[in-house]
Amino acid sequence: MIVGGGFGGLKAARKLARHDVSVTLVDRVNHHLFQPLLYQVSTGILAGSQIAPALRDVFVGARNVRVILAEVRGIDLQRRTVSATAASELTLPYDTLIVAAGARDSYFGHDEWERDAPGMKSLDDAYRIRTRILNAFEQAETSEAGGERDAYLTFVIVGAGPTGVELAGQLAYLSRHTLKNHYRAIRSEDARIVLLDAEPNVLPSFPERLRAKTAAQLRRVGVEVLVGTRATSIDEHGIDLGGPDGATRIASHTVVWAAGVRGSALAEQLAGASGVSLDKLGRLEVAGDLSLRGHPEVFAIGDMIAIDGVPGVAQAALQEGAYVAAVIARRLAGRAAPPPFRYRDKGNLAIVGRSWAVADIRGLQLTGFLAWLIWAGVHIAFLVDWQKRLEVIRRWFWEFLTQARHERLISAVSLLPDDLARSELESAQRRRSRGHS
Description:
Layout: E1 2-3, H1 7-16, E2 23-27, H2 38-42, H3 55-58, E3 65-69, E4 71-76, E5 81-85, E6 89-93, E7 97-99, E8 103-105, H4 123-141, H5 147-152, E9 154-158, H6 162-178, E10 192-197, H7 208-221, E11 223-227, E12 230-235, E13 238-243, E14 246-251, E15 254-257, E16 261-263, H8 265-274, E17 284-285, E18 291-292, E19 295-300, E20 305-306, H9 314-333, E21 348-352, E22 356-361, E23 364-368, H10 369-382, H11 386-402, H12 418-433
Parallel strand pairs: 1-2, 1-7, 2-3, 7-19, 9-10, 9-15, 10-11, 17-20
Antiparallel strand pairs: 4-5, 5-6, 8-16, 12-13, 13-14, 18-19, 21-22, 22-23
């Protein structure tokens, strides 16, 4: 049984599909998601389908892999069952369990900020943020010049890690190039893009030289960089900050959260059921073979675990998924277990704007177009299948030539808070069931 079809869960399932085992993969969505390119969906470069292949397509040729669309509600370690909700309540037995449930946004004790500063962990999140961004320009077009218009044309990204940096760079390009001359009452290139972080530098996990060059490039493309600055309050009208210049406020109707993550709710549940500790980020502390201490038949991988300082990135989840699959295969074959998991850092990459990136590859530090080519090649290689790779290459090539972005639809439902959006969708479903358009 594998819970979660992200990088780690998918890798483990594909490895185990080669062995004489029965694999059940459970996920609450029907697709794998290539999260590192999610910000390109939110800024109109890529369509969601180009980075999210259906799980059933991935495993159509693997007859020993069953995919179940359901939301896992609980795990009974004693009975070795997983409880999930689909069309009905399901109780799914397992011999060996791999939990790859990912992470969720951490608002550092201010969960009330989520409504006005959404994070980006799913396709729905990306669509919602894209709608907020595009709608802000539309509202600015019909607002009186001055404070309200300026608030609509001000975009704030909280968190200057790779996601925040990449989103800020693409927002700057969207406003200054893609949308230029599309409006009559406003100049889209006048948009204010603010990137802030409580840390003293952008990209804190990168070497100092690359941090400085990234900050300089961000400013060059039009991003206002505020480091050593933290959010103290967020509401629908703006964000309050505390930083080197004291308390300040930025009026904005579009704030995006990219500042931190914590382990999934299933990490908390497993910790409570087993007595295993969580770290300060709510991640499960696992044994050297990535198993749950006291339960060698249960493994946890990906962003939901803490082990030896391994970062919560895609390459770590992929390595963990492959490692756990190897542990299980050795057990079934009666062979000795492999050595404890060891993460192999293959480097860090981040892109700023259209064709400029930074790369830290085992001590080799690169910037500019060459780093961008490496970034593009790595991301293409990690996509699941050749069809998606070709689609993304085609879209990038067209965007590079024309500066056009075709994914710019505004969803009315995405403008609503989550509870109202669900209500609106349910009403639409009822209307369709009655034969109304």
